[in-house]
Amino acid sequence: MPYSCQHGGTCINSTCVCSRGYKGSSCENESLEILYLRSSKAVFREGNEVLFESEITDNSNFTVQWSRDGVIISGILSRYSITSSAKANGTFLHQLRISSVYERDEGNWSIMASNGVTVVNKGIIIRVLPKLVLLMIPQYDLSIETKENFTLQCVVVNPGSLINLTSGSLIWVKDGKPLLTGSIFTISTTQTSTILNKASAEISDSGNYFCLHSTYPDPLNVSIYVNIIGPESVEILLFRISDSISREGKSVWLETEIYEIIDLTVQWFHNGNLITNSSLRYEIKSYTTENDTLRNVLNVPNVLQQDDGDWNITASNGKTTESMSVYLRVLPKLELQMIPQYELSIETKENLTLECAVVNHASLINLTDGSLIWFKDGKPILTDSGFNISTTKNLTILNKAIAEVNDSGIYSCSHSTYPDPLNVSIYVNITEPESVEILFFRISDSISREGKSVWLETEIYDISDLTVQWFHNGNLINNSSMRYKINSYSTGNGTLRYVISIPDVLRQDEGDWNITASNGKATESLSVYLRVLPRLVLQMMPPNNLSIESKESINLLCVVTNPESLFNLSGGGLFWQKDGKKISPDSGFNITTTDTSTTLNKLSAEEGDTGTYSCSHSAYPDPINVSLYINVTEPKSVEILSFKSSSSVLREGKSLRFESEIAFDPALIVQWFHNGKLINNSSKYTITSSITSNGTSVHVLQIFNVLLQDEGEWNITASNGKTSETKSIRIQVLEKLKLQMTPQYDFSIQRGEGIVLGCVVINPGSLQNLIGGSLIWQKDGQKILSGFHINTTNTSTQLRKSSSEIDDSGSYSCSHSAYPDPINVSINVNVTEPEPIEILSLKINKPLLIEGEAAWFESEIMNKSGLIVQWSHNGNLITDALSRFTLTSSTTANKTSLYVLNISSVVLQDEGEWNITATNGLSTASRGIKVQVFPRISLSLTPKDDLSIQTGEVIQLQCEALYTDTPAYSTGIKLNWKKDGKDISSDPSFSVSEAGTTTTLYKSSAELTDSGRYSCSHSAYSNPEDVSVYINVTLSDKDKPCPCQHGGTCINSTCVCPVGYQGRYCEDEYLEILSYKSSNSVIREEKSVWFQAEIVGPVGFSVQWSRNGDLISSTASRYVMTSSKTANGKTLHVLTITNVLQRDEGYWTVEALTSSKTEARNLTVKVLPRLLLQLAPQYDFSIKTGESINLRCVVINPKSLTGLSDGNLVWKKDGVYILSDFGFNISTTNVSSTLEKELAYLGDAGRFSCSHSTYPDPVSVSIAISVTKPEQIRCADDKIEKIMWKSTIAGTTKKESCPENQKGTATRYCNFQGFWESPDLINCTDVSLVNANEELDSIIADGTTKNVDEAVNNTLVKMKNLTSQRSELSAGDISSSLDILEKIVNVTNMTSANVEKEAFFAVVDNVLSTNNSKSWTAVSDKTEKDASSLLKNMDRMSEVVLKKENITTSKFKGKNFEVSVDKTKVDEKGIVFPEKTEKTPNDTTTDTEEYSTFLELPKQTNKIEKPITYVAVIYKTISDILPTDSGSRTEENSNEVKEGKEKKKKEFVNSEILSLTTQTDLGILSPPLNLAFQHKHENESADLQAVCVSWDFITNKWSEEGCKVNSTNNKRTVCQCNHLTNFAILMRPYTPVRI
User: Is 1356 within 8 Å of 1396 (Cβ atoms)?
Assistant: First the structure.
């Protein structure tokens, strides 16, 4: 019978075949089915297009939702396009298109269809590979010079983007053409990086460089432009001058040679002024040489005096600048002056005298001989020609007592060796006598002193009409002057005497004095020169009378302010008197005297020292002195006269002033304290002091902005170092009024809502001391009087209005009517018309929930004031009080609010309708969503309890999943098995079978290794749940142990090997470097970096580290190597570089080694150089006010700025950044900056520093500039020791760079009188020695062993050449040589290097030369080094030599010491050194033969099995420079003096020094060592005794221990010592034994 099929179903064989969209036996039910869900492909790359398609069947309306990992996808998002269309077969095609896929789109995509009754879904997983990201290093365009190395690196930032690429690699393209590995470039490529390198760049290498992946499907690349240019840095190769000392009128040229580069500009400067071709005096030319350099020449055809000074050449290409200078000294042209200057006419028998003087003495500089000579009518005048010639260097006088007519002629004067023909001449006309004749003109004293009397006298023939006049420096003198007295009288012999007397000579009387006699026809004049020495002026410091207290020091200074006043004084000096009596040196005062100054000091004054102290000069002819009175009193007490404050109670923010008056005390120290804490001058506190007219001092502390913490006790303490007094004041600080408005921020309400504002005084204490007043309200600045309800207390007020109006909008403020300062708080209230509430969306994280998982609802609602939002479930209100629910809200950028309801753990009862309701009291809105909740899966494991089985038994576990028949798990449940947390589902030793929701784990024969915890879990949830059981498998009786080696364990007849071994019986070693990494691949100098290698290997394997192939030694001071065991038996090896240097760049290798295997791994490290800044000038300097400040800071190594994206050089003064408004002009480029100020003033003094604003480490250079008044005493510019010493302030030490070819800093002291003292070059060392020192430091620091022999011996050869070529070594070179020799011994001892002994000995011999004695003294005085360090290093070198195998005998004989390395059997033969005499050591005969110094080690009684090597040394000159202090008992009496207060004689070494070192320690010598010493100085004194001593390196003194005198006379001493070391004879003052 046919069925009745509904909805168009067809009955076939009594079964209804339903039409699409229906199901059931009679097609009575509607059906909903997703036929398929597919994507365009399974794996995408970012940026690809994705298409999802799903076909769904249903007979009625249904809804579709797309989601990704449970998150619903909306079609309103621009990247997603969702479409649907009906197909001809009655199904619907739904499509989701993603225009550009991102990485976050990876995951599970699903489509869910619902018709209100049935919900179905399907899912599909897609994978999104990231888009390829390439990084070019460097990232920006690169500009370098030719011949430089350039390296480009291209890195795949995200290696995951290369997944699914079966081939291909990173490739380089230049200007569109691929670069191949066989080209001129070196290309190193891995899977994720490639490096392009060229060691020496060329101009043709400029271009665009691209990096791309050859098989990546999208055209992605990174590029950089590389610009190769010629050398940018300017380099001046030479700068020279034809003659650094020239004369006026000569020609001079200056020449420089510079590398010719692009944009080169060359400028010449003289004393800072630019020289151009426009000047007619200078010729500037330039031309290119054959070597592609530019030769620039400046020619000065006619040198003038103004050409003297610094000549500079400056070359610049706009990027870098270099400047060099030379100093040209221009000697003036010789100027001669003839006296008289004009034609001379005299009468016969008169005296003819001509003077010729060099006007400018400097013009004779560099003339080694020659003198002024006279000519008459062109012929030389000889001394026997009747003339008397008197000549000095700068003056010649020609004289003839009685002139004759034939003496008339032209007289000329010139210099015999001056290079140019220069002379002066005068015509002398000798005539018969006329009427006027001055017989003589004389002066009582041509050199006189101020205050003395002088007379001038002349005698003239008495003739008629005679007029006589006196002149001084051309000015007529007459009797009207009160200072001069002029007399004349007749002698009675026909002559007249004229006398002018000056009773009190002054300085202005110095000069030419003339007498002129005339009779109207003839005139005669004579002159004399009067030199007036100034009156002695003494200045006492301090200048005024002094009152001090007992036990204070007396320090007086007396200075001759005008040293020229001491001219012509023979002997004598400054001396001190007290109360008219001379103070002697033994009177308790310390007196130090120079030619022009004397000091008087006493450390502790006594009352008896009160008196008048005067200073005068013992040889000065007049009694001139200066004096002051010193009153020595008992210490007086400090007295604070008053202490007051401007106010004791004040409010925050006010100012406060403390003032204290204290009785004056010159030693007064005043300190301020607040609550016991010392107060200093700062931005907050200003402390000043001043002296009143009453002689008291006023001290003020000013606080401009008082804070609450300033409340409390304020103290002032005054002390003079002996007594002190303290006074205090208590200050109360009232808080500043603080008001708080509620609410705190502006708000908006709707009309009809209420307004409630509150205002509270937060700190009521701030209202203290206020009379009356209260809190008041204002709206828009007007006090509110009506329309609002106001409730006010002392400290709060409330403003209310129950129903607001639109015109209530405005600014509401609250303040206190009586508070003195205008303090208020305000808020803006905006009243608007009410708006309807709009719930924009309501969604849930997923519509189908599973019991126990978390869920959330999210709703977006337009912001409304006064909005109240509530959540409900099936009509029941949800609140935060329920522990499972969390309600939150937040504001979005779109001025909407997001309300979220979180359910921490969903339960089955949560199924149903969920609603959100929003209301503001004026309108309400609500939205709802339905939720389904399905039960959670649970697991059941059989067996449930842990079990124990034996090897060979069956393992069988069964796991069942419950509650899986719900739509939530329609895609199926996957059950997984794990053992000890690791998946074993695919383990071949186990079999897994599945039946429905049950899975079984099975193994037929258990093994010992199967022991563990077995767990079953499912993948339905993100945090899978599991059930587990522990199975313990023990060894069965039938299983036997196996022969495992190296500690292996036998399990199931199989050896389980320990770490580091493998093989059937663990017989093979296993060595592998599991990982190798560094803390950083790019690091800056002086930072630290570590390398870490995790290694598995057998017991006893070793690890070696190397850098660029050079092995790193464990003795290296810069490297720290450690190793430690990990928990799994592996070892971690770490190499730490505590201070990375440039030479650490390159590849670092770790090697693991056994006797049969080697494993190695490499890492590359790039080291960025540490920023090096150079400041010009380099050292501190001083200038005068009004002079300019010019500083330049340069980055020496621009590569140190690599990786810094911004920043620049910045300037600071005294730690504060210098801004553009500080009065300085700052000009900055990438690598340089200049700081200039045209006119400096005193406030510009300070320390100026330069640093880089973004450099990660605090690197800076600084210089201190002193700005002084022009009158301050200074040392002038001076050039000495090839160093130009710039002017500096008196009393300071100046630093300058060492001379050429030396490194270091030279210093020179400018004393208080403004005179330079000798330079100190102790820190100046030859460049080659400095470089050698640095190379040895690197060997010691790095511990490298490669090429050590070569480095050490090259250093010794350089030192040998340097020390032998110079007649005298500087102190700096000796100091550096001692350091190098010590380091050579250290390196040799550390690395067992083979040192050229002869070269080492030759250097020691040269350093010990007696020519270096002054330098040795400087080294001992100014450093902690002396010759004992040379002894010590020779001893250590001997020990190093004796440690060597196959020692060769050798001898070295130098001028200053001898060495012998030889071998002997000391128990058979003994040792004699040196072998140059046949005398026995005990021979003390006094014949005339030369005595020798030698040692003899007799045959030893101790048996020595084999010959031993020894080193014997004799030092011939070192005794003169060794310390002589022996530390003996005479040292205790060193302060004793003999009768007559003569000091005891000092100890001194009176012999050469002998040394003996043996390969084997001989212990106490038996018989003892014999030493014969010839005395350097015969001992003729009974007060000196010879002592045998040896040098003790621990105390650094001579020691008598173990030595005794065997015999001695005045020429020779023989010693016996029981040990080996360095020996000598010490002459010690004889100390008689006291009874």
Answer: yes
Q: Would you state the structure tokens that stand for residue 341, as one six-digit string?
A: 């200057």
* Cis ω for the linkage preceding 743 (within 30 of 0): yes
Instruction: For residue 772, count other CB atoms closer than 10 A to its CB.
Output: 6
CA distance 50 to 41: 8
Residue 1590 and residue 1431: Cα distance in Å, rounded? 12
What does the pLDDT look like over 674-714, one tens digit per residue? Answer: 999 999 988 889 999 999 888 899 999 999 889 988 999 99
Question: Quick one: tokens of 1263?
Answer: 């210089």
Is residue 809 within 8 Å of residue 829, measured between CB atoms?
yes
Neighbours of 1048 (CB within 10 A): 21
Query: What are the φ and ψ backbone dihedral angles of 731, each rounded to 5 degrees?
Result: -115, 135
For residue 492, what are its two tokens?
A: 């009675």
More confident residue, 1505 or 1472: 1472
Nearest to 1075 by CA among 1165, 1150, 1156, 1166: 1150
Q: Say what the pLDDT of residue 967 is.
A: 67
pLDDT digits (tens, 9 = 90+) for 678-688: 999 888 899 99
Confidence (pLDDT) at 1240? 87
657's enclosing H/E stretch is strand 656-663
Q: Are 1497 and 1471 in contact (CB under 8 A)?
A: yes
Lookup: tokens for 1039:
């299983």
The total of other beta-carbon atoms located within 10 Å of residue 1275's CB is 24
Judged by DSSP in three states, 346 sits in: strand
Q: Which residues pair with 468 in a beta bridge?
A: 517
User: What's the order of all strands across the beta sheet hosting 1119-1125?
Assistant: 1072-1078, 1089-1096, 1131-1137, 1119-1125
Q: Tens digit of pLDDT for each residue in 112-127?
A: 888 777 788 899 989 8
Task: Report whether pLDDT(653) > 90.
Answer: no
Reduce the DSSP state of residue 1518 to 3 states and report it. helix
Specify the pTM: 0.39
Closest CA to 205 of 143, 263, 264, 262: 143
Residue 1382 CA to residue 1374 CA, distance in Å, equals: 12
- Here the tokens at position 277 are 């071709």
> Which tokens is 1381 given?
């020799």
DSSP code of 803?
S
Q: What are phi and psi of 1442, to 5 degrees?
A: -75, -15
**Of 1384, 1383, 1376, whose CA–CA distance to 1423 is shortest?**
1376
pLDDT, tens digit, 9 for 90 and up, residues 455-480: 999 999 888 778 899 999 989 988 77
Number of C-beta neighbours around residue 530 at 10 A: 20
3-state secondary structure 27-40: CCEECCEEEEEEEC
What type of residue sits at position 1562?
L
CB of 1588 closer than 8 Å to CB of 1468: no
Report the mean per-residue pLDDT for the chain. Answer: 85
Q: How many CA atoms lie within 13 Å of 154's alpha carbon, on the beta-carbon side?
A: 26
Q: What is the DSSP letter of 935?
A: P
* Long-range residue pairs from 1394-1398, CB within 8 A, at least 24 positions apart, any chain: 1394/1349, 1395/1349, 1395/1352, 1395/1353, 1395/1356, 1395/1437, 1395/1440, 1396/1353, 1396/1356, 1396/1357, 1397/1437, 1397/1441, 1397/1450, 1397/1452, 1397/1459, 1397/1461, 1398/1450, 1398/1452
Would you state the structure tokens that stand for residue 777, as one six-digit string? Answer: 């309200």
The SS3 of residue 502 is strand
Token pair of 5 as six digits: 């099929």
In the three-class reduction of DSSP (H, G, I as helix; E, B as strand; rest coil), residue 210 is classed as strand
Q: Is 477 helix (H, G, I), strand (E, B) or coil?
A: strand
Tokens representing residue 1134 in the block:
């770490």
CA distance 983 to 1278: 88
User: What's the one-letter identity of residue 854?
Assistant: A
